Amino acid sequence: MASENVHTFTDDNFEKEVLQSNIPVLVDFWATWCAPCKAIAPLIDTIASEYDGRIKVGKVNVDDNPGTPAKYGVRGIPTVILLKDGKVVDQVVGAIPKAQLEALIKKAL
């Protein structure tokens, strides 16, 4: 289960929670059947705790919320997208190491 610092984003709340956020947002697009998604889940939890207050971290289940992944061209999962001021700063696809995820985050801080 995700830590208390990891938000659940949906097609319905994405604009309010992500696009209108006053701090950068790291979004993990995932699915329950995706093994690499499960592999990076603990890393996403750790990042959410370590960067609490500086970035917002959340997940979008692509099976339950197909609209948002389609809008952002998500074709493979896990896809992690970093947004700042409602715009995509960068994105990566696949299970990546913590150092690469932190390098991504630093682009928005």
Automatic annotation (TrEMBL):
NCBIfam families: thioredoxin. One of its GO terms (molecular function) is protein-disulfide reductase activity. The active site is at 34 (nucleophile), 37 (nucleophile). InterPro entries: Thioredoxin, Thioredoxin-like_sf, Thioredoxin_CS, Thioredoxin_domain. This is Thioredoxin. Belongs to the thioredoxin family. Disulfide bonds join 34-37. The record marks 35-36 as: Contributes to redox potential value. Residues 1-109 form the Thioredoxin domain. One of its GO terms (biological process) is cell redox homeostasis. The keyword Disulfide bond applies. It holds the Pfam family Thioredoxin. The record marks 28 as: Deprotonates C-terminal active site Cys. CDD domains: TRX_family. Keywords: Disulfide bond, Electron transport, Redox-active center, Transport. GO terms for cellular component: cytosol.
